[in-house]
């Protein structure tokens, strides 16, 4: 009997709802089938995002600032919808159904985009490179079809990113030493495949868009994702499925609602009088920060539907346990760090918008081959991979040898990323000043300026290296410093920094355009050769420096949560605390 039980994964079921058999479900094969979805998602989203600004500017004849904002709004919405996807997966659908449904939605979106870029009726008439003023912009109907396609893709991306990594790790049992090691290996391979998908997007797919046709490139995305869905569904009988524990967002709202209702209730003199019903092994020690939330754990009349002497559980919207309250406090402590990492993704947004526009005006030929403007982001991806390889193979062993420490902390990694992004914006401002000098010398109407596109490499490399460090640091920080039952939500919280960073970029561009554009073309002119993009990059560099100082203050304030420890247990029959237990 014990041998049979050892083959059962206690917290997972198979496709029939029966306890999952370790020999027949989970492991590397099902996890590999899930990775195919992630590769195709990256191929589609990044392949569209890094080269979309040139389509909006050159084909749809939109101003450069408007084009940049459309791209950043598209990317921001993609990451913001991860919260919706995570909520649906946790509360209703489960990760398997969420992946299948949203992958189909993204397939539909890329298919629509392929059609919209193919049909002449969905594009304005073409015009020459020197007819910018006379070019007819896309109509409302044409832009409406384009928006519909893009936001179908954004919806699909949000649902996929919220569940793919989690469903992949569900295929490994964290309680089994061998499978736990395989799970760690899966995480490293997962990031590798994300990078491979991005690399294919900014090289092969962008080249097809520019040299063969956008409709062909987007059609390839649609066919690839549909093929990945079929492969994903083929593993249905092999997957392990974890039962949902409910949405952590609801748990947070319950604590907030309960503490607000009891805002006039006095706190008891001892923690022992607060309500606690969590198992002793999973309780979290009470902390003094955000004490106003402790009122959610104060027992008052009406908290128990049948009375306090009954065995009925309390109304969770009126009374929450100390552990539940401490979980919300842990999330609250993450927010200052969360807020000060948003601006990094604002600088990142410039790499796939204005930096691509810079590249489109510069000399990009190597012999007879012309590098697509969107493919310059290959240096961005290369910087990420090189930085992580150097950190893993050189920095960590060296630091361990010299100081006995296994690398830098997640807070230090995020700080390094913020510094590199600040330097990247400063480098971008200097490069743009040189490009504008050349533009004025030969005339701003010149289609290709006699300046090498490789001058852009420093800004791509600095911000790319910064992403490699801050992405790793953020992911580790939000997972390790969040409550155990809120890992999915904490990943979503991390992804909202990307979302808000893109939206912040759109907001800053709009404000700068309005303030500097009155009576002239301003910093962000319709044609960047007539603007002062160098001043815009300089502004972002100054903002990044101020934000870095704010981050250091928040990092000094942050105190990591201590290990889970027993807290005083309330006697539910009396509503009073029992004798406090010693915290170990």
UniProtKB/TrEMBL annotation:
Keyword Transmembrane helix assigned: yes
GO biological process: oligopeptide transport
Keywords: Membrane, Transmembrane, Transmembrane helix
Alphabetized InterPro entries for the sequence: MFS_trans_sf (IPR036259), POT_fam (IPR000109), PTR2_symporter_CS (IPR018456)
One GO location term (cellular component): membrane
Primary localization: membrane
Bilayer topology: Multi-pass membrane protein
Keyword Transmembrane: yes
Subcellular location: Membrane
Superkingdom of origin: Eukaryota
Single GO MF descriptor: transmembrane transporter activity
Record-annotated membrane-spanning stretches: 70-89, 95-115, 190-209, 215-235, 331-349, 369-391, 411-431, 451-471, 492-515, 535-558
SUPFAM superfamilies: MFS general substrate transporter
Family: Belongs to the major facilitator superfamily. Proton-dependent oligopeptide transporter (POT/PTR) (TC 2.A.17) family.
Protein name listed in UniProt: Uncharacterized protein
């Amino acid at each position: 009997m014990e041998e049979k039980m050892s083959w059962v994964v206690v917290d997972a079921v198979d496709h029939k709802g029966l306890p999952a058999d370790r020999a027949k479900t989970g492991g590397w094969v099902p996890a590999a089938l899930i990775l195919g979805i992630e590769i195709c998602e990256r191929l589609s989203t990044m392949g569209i995002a890094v080269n979309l600004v040139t389509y909006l500017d050159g084909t749809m004849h939109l101003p450069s600032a408007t084009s940049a904002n459309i791209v950043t709004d598209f990317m921001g919405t993609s990451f913001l919808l991860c919260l919706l996807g995570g909520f649906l997966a946790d509360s209703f659908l489960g990760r398997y159904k969420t992946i299948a449904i949203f992958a189909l939605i993204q397939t539909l979106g890329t298919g629509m985009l392929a059609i919209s870029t193919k049909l002449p009726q969905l594009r304005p008439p073409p015009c020459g490179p020197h007819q910018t003023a006379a070019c007819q912009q896309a109509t409302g109907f044409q832009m409406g079809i384009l928006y519909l396609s893009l936001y179908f893709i954004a919806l699909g991306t949000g649902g996929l990113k919220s569940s793919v990594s989690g469903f992949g790790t569900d295929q490994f049992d964290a309680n089994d030493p061998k499978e736990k090691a395989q799970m760690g290996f899966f995480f490293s391979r997962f990031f590798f495949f994300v990078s491979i998908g991005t690399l294919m997007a900014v090289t092969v797919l962008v080249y097809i868009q520019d040299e063969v046709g956008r409709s062909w490139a987007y059609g390839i995305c649609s066919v690839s994702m549909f093929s990945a869905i079929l492969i994903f569904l083929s593993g249905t009988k092999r997957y392990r499925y974890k039962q949902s524990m409910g949405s952590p967002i609801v748990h947070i709202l319950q604590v907030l609602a309960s503490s607000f209702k009891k805002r006039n209730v006095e706190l008891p003199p001892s923690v022992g009088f607060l309500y606690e019903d969590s198992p002793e092994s999973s309780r979290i020690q009470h902390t003094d920060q955000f004490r106003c939330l402790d009122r959610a754990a104060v027992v008052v009349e009406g908290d128990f539907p049948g009375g306090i002497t009954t065995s009925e559980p309390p109304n969770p919207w009126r009374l929450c346990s100390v552990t539940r309250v401490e979980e919300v406090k842990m999330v609250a402590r993450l927010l200052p760090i969360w807020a000060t990492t948003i601006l990094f993704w604002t600088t990142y947004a410039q790499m796939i918008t204005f930096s691509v526009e810079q590249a489109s005006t510069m000399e990009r030929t190597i012999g007879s081959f012309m590098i697509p403007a969107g493919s310059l982001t290959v240096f961005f991806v290369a910087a990420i991979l090189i930085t992580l390889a150097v950190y893993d193979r050189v920095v960590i062993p060296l630091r361990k040898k010299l100081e006995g420490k296994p690398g830098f902390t997640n807070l230090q990694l995020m700080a390094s990323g913020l510094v590199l992004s600040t330097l990247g914006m400063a480098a971008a401002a200097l490069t743009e000043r040189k490009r504008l000098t050349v533009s004025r010398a030969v005339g701003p109407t010149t289609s290709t300026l006699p300046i090498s596109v490789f001058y852009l490499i420093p800004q791509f490399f600095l911000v790319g290296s910064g992403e490699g460090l801050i992405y790793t640091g953020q992911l580790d920080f939000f997972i390790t410093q969040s409550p155990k039952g809120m890992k999915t939500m904490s990943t979503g919280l991390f992804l909202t920094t990307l979302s808000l960073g893109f939206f912040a970029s759109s907001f800053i561009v709009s404000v700068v355009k309005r303030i500097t554009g009155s009576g002239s073309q301003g910093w962000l002119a319709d044609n960047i050769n007539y603007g002062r993009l160098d001043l815009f990059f300089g502004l972002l560099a100054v903002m990044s420096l101020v934000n870095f100082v704010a981050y250091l203050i928040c990092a000094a304030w942050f105190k990591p949560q201590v290990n889970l420890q027993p807290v005083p247990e309330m006697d539910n029959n009396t509503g009073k605390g029992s004798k406090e237990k010693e915290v170990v």
